[in-house]
Amino acid sequence: MTMPVDHFSGYHRPDGRVGVRNILLVLSVTGLTGPTARRIANSISNAVYAGTPSASGLTDADQIVQDRTLTGLGLNPNVGAVLVVGANPPQVEKIAAAIASSGKPVEKLSLDDCGHDAITLSERGLRAATELAREISFCTRQAAPLSALFLGLECGRSDPSSGLVSNPLLGRVADYLIEAGGTAVFGETIEWLGLEDALSARASEASTGAAIRAAVLAREQLASHDGIDLRGRNPDPTNIAAGLSTIEEKAIGN
User: Fold this and answer.
1) 164: which DSSP letter?
2) φ, ψ for residue 83, nearest 5 deg
3) Helix, strand or coil, per DSSP, at residue 64
4) N vs C: which end of the chain shows fewer Cβ within 10 Å?
5) Domain residue spans in the chain?
6) How far apart (Å, rounded) are the C-alpha atoms in residues 10 and 249?
7) How far is CA 109 from CA 26, 90, 117, in A?
8) What is the CATH number of domain 7-136?
């Protein structure tokens, strides 16, 4: 595949990563503060809300996954700055510190800081978010090598044309990016459900191929534990109405 492109224009972050966007993330690390955090984000241009519906009563394993996910959202190179909001001060401190270690601007605010008053939290949060937005507005795009680009691929609503047109094109773009030293990832493990053998056959090492197959199996077992049959419910009625008939066709379409 010939593409005369060896660089892109992005925002260089203090940790060395490069993003293609420069957004302010308002991150709620507890469910109780979600509505307030969302209102703050909706009031600021170029701000995005993200959060969790819950943050208490989790098992150790679930807490680790949630903390890693929340931290990862803040570390995303498309995020220029983060306002961390929560009802649990230790949780706010932990997530804010993990994100701040990357060098990007981070502010934190808990309900305890505001006398457990949602209006005060909203007012103080809006001021903090406004200042962060002003700070990152001075960031400018600069040239970066393709090796610094991280491309996430997410499924659309699959139909027969997905496997014939759009996804082969995305596959070629991903191959080109990887050949240039960049990274491309699937947004969901079950994107390749039904085609794990074909995908693992492309792995550069046997251990990687085994990991690809194991990832699908682990996801199936996790769903089965909750009474969900991933293969039995795929393709779904919408996919069938669009012309798909098997999970393999859907995986190709993804």
Assistant:
1) I
2) -110, 115
3) helix
4) N
5) 7-136, 149-253
6) 36
7) 11, 11, 12
8) 3.40.50
Determine the residue type at 150: F
pLDDT (0 to 100) of residue 225: 83
CB-CB contact of 203 with 212 (8 Å): yes
DSSP label of 187: S
Helix (H, G, I), strand (E, B) or coil at 151: strand
Enter the tokens of residue 42.
């909706």
Strand partners, 145: 7
Instruction: Dig out the tokens for 150 from the structure.
Output: 């991280």
CA dist 29 and 19 (Å) reads: 23
Say if CB 19 and CB 75 are below 8 A apart: no
pLDDT < 70 regions, the chain:
1-4, 55, 57, 253-254
- The two beta strands, 7-12 and 18-19, are antiparallel
Q: Where are the alpha helices (DSSP H) in 154-236?
A: 160-161, 167-179, 196-200, 206-225
Residue pLDDT, tens place only, 82-134: 999 999 999 999 999 999 999 999 999 999 999 999 999 999 999 999 999 99
In contact, 175 and 204? CB cutoff 8 Å:
no
- Cβ count near 19 (within 10 Å): 21
**Which residue's entry shows tokens 């660089």?**
7
